[in-house]
């Protein structure tokens, strides 16, 4: 039987250890790489709104020209040379044309490629690289045509590239600020709609106490349909789920009206009844006798003459809403 020397065993163990380390490191790096590529496919806002794009392009182009004229980089001095001024003006015009082409003309020609719903960070990066390459080439060509001093430098390509980076940076900064505004508006509108939906589901309890104070009746305010006077009692018509109920409470309608005074949806339709206008269906009648129909109530409820116009407006609103 062969015996493996101890130093050979140690070498094998070290090799196995190193292999495991490399394998583990590769596994640990793989999710990070995948995550990086997944981030590139995240949605990104591509704003091709004509009014906004035109405004942004004009502001960016003017800001670029003012910055170059003020700081005079790479020997550009429009005070000493009219050609330098023409160069700055030309680069500003090329910048405006480039941005307008990429935000308005190309999306019109290739709508599927520039679809807002399918626009991603990767597409935005590619678009910016293409615009940067075109601006760098155009600025270099203009510098050569107008014999600008920057072409005399050792690395004119990098200098024109540095100039081309300025409008790209300003344009992306403006778009980023606009995207933040759009997100804030979206968050605000979402929160507002969510609060309104939550408010619909919030229960507002109301409590009626009998005249002698012995009995207490609690209702959800949205469940009340009709409250009608009946001698010494008040008939309370309400709904719970799909079940309609009638309850007799020994109380006056005036006291009930006082309890409901904080809720504008309850209207004194007649001296003998209070209705919930949210349960209103339609108004009918003529010759001074009018009635309304309410949801879940199988009889007509009388309406005073001074309330007819109010209920007619309510019926008109419902008709328009249904249309």
Overall description:
- With 323 residues, the chain is of the alpha+beta class.
- The chain has 2 domains: 50-179, no CATH class; 205-322, OB fold (Dihydrolipoamide Acetyltransferase, E2P) (Beta Barrel).
- Helix content is 56%, strand content 18%.
- The protein contains 7 helices and 10 strands.
- The strands form 3 sheets. A 5-stranded antiparallel β-sheet has the order 5-4-3-7-6, covered by helices on one side. It has a 3-stranded antiparallel β-sheet with strand order 8-9-10, covered by helices on one side.
- Strand 8 and strand 9 form a beta hairpin.
- The radius of gyration is 38 Å and the shape is rod-shaped.
- The N and C termini lie far apart (97 Å).
**Cα end-to-end separation:** 97 Å
Tally of individual domains: 2
Structural class: alpha+beta
Please tally the helical runs, counting DSSP H or I stretches of 4 or more residues. Answer: 7
Spatial strand arrangement across the major sheet: 5-4-3-7-6
Helical content class: 55-70%
Tell me about the biggest sheet?
A: 5 strands, antiparallel
Give the overall average pLDDT.
81
Q: Based on DSSP secondary structure assignment, what is the total number of beta strands?
A: 10
Low-confidence runs: 1-8, 11-24, 318-323
The general outline is: rod-shaped
Run of helices and strands: HHHHHEEEEEHEEEEEH
Return Rg in Å: 38 Å
**Residue fraction in strands:** 15-25%
Keywords:
56% helix, 323 residues, OB fold (Dihydrolipoamide Acetyltransferase, E2P), five-stranded antiparallel β-sheet, three-stranded antiparallel β-sheet, rod-shaped, disordered N terminus
